[in-house]
Amino acid sequence: MEDMSGPYVVRGSVSLPEAELMWRFSRSSGPGGQHVNTSDTQVELRFDLARTEALPEVWKRRALERLAGRLVDGVVTVRASEHRSQWRNREAAAVRLAALLAEATAPPPRPRRPTRVPRGINERRLREKKQRSETKRGRSPRDWT
User: Fewer CB within 10 Å, N side or C side of the chain?
Assistant: First the structure.
């Protein structure tokens, strides 16, 4: 296997420093064969969001606010156990953490500028409504004698 694929880019030139990532390995749950009882393939990756120096202050505030429900003492945790090898689970966990932080640090969307419905569109809608009701009224057997 090759080495871990370098720094995990959050966005732009900002990436997660390897020194601030805390890894923990344990046995994955679920079915398995002879290999399963001896290998610690489940990966738990922890990143101290509250104390990190890797993120710009604005991003950090934004992320702490948006991920408030996921944080335990300012630490965000990501688990990966879908692969059979620890190395691939490490990759998956790191990529997941980077994606989570990228989403949490993204700038808020531009506020929507309220616009009015053009009069022509409203009139057309009412005209079509009237036409439809006429069509339906024409179907009813009112004065069949």
Answer: C
